[in-house]
Specification:
Strand content: over 45%
Number of strands: 12
Shape: globular
Radius of gyration: 15 Å
Helix content: under 10%
Structural class: mainly beta
Largest sheet: 9 strands, antiparallel
Mean pLDDT: 76
Distance between the termini: 6 Å
Order of helices and strands: EEEEEEEEEEEE
């Protein structure tokens, strides 16, 4: 199947990314315009996380502005101790509409390829109150790559203090393959 960029980068403008914070869930909006299933998710590690480090990707229903609803699927752990493309099988079936894709790692030194925020296709017909209409990346503290992701998603880290709920202009370059 075809591969799609979750962040809807419209011109392929990418960079090597910044080091991600361990225990922070980075969340992207993911819009699926027609019913579709996906069988793989991938990302590119540009700076390895170190021996034994892992990442985890989750898919949640959109729960409203800035929120995550029910967990659709948890990818399980993905080794990030080396650079290069990391892919894992997923069963994201019958998706249509708005979702949240989250990425968390336990690595203190991990960087993955990112896409420049100025090239993100924001969704024209989304109310301004929903973060799909704004910067493409949110982050929430207090998560673990070695534990099952919460269902429903929780944004408790948002109120944990300054910087706990950040909006970034660049977005993680996470790809999904249509089944």
């Amino acid at each position: 199947g075809y591969w799609y960029n979750v962040s809807h980068n419209n011109n392929g403008n990418v960079n090597s990314g910044a080091v991600l914070n361990a225990g922070v869930l980075y969340v992207l909006g993911f819009y699926v315009p027609v019913t579709q299933s996906f069988d793989q998710v991938s990302f590119v590690v540009t700076t390895a996380g170190g021996a034994g480090t892992v990442a985890r990707i989750g898919l949640w229903e959109a729960g409203g502005a800035d929120d995550m609803g029910a967990l659709v699927v948890d990818s399980g752990t993905i080794a990030v101790a080396s650079t290069g493309t990391k892919a894992t099988s997923v069963a994201w079936t019958g998706l249509k509409g708005f979702y949240r894709v989250g990425f968390v790692t336990d690595a203190a030194t991990l960087a993955i390829r990112m896409t420049n925020g100025s090239t993100i296709d924001r969704f024209q017909y989304v109310p301004a109150s929903d973060w799909y209409s704004g910067p493409p990346l949110l982050s929430f503290t207090g998560y673990s790559a070695t534990a099952t992701l919460p269902n429903p998603g929780t944004d408790a880290g948002r109120s944990a203090g300054a910087g706990a709920h950040n909006q970034g202009q660049d977005a993680l370059l996470i790809n999904v393959r249509a089944a």
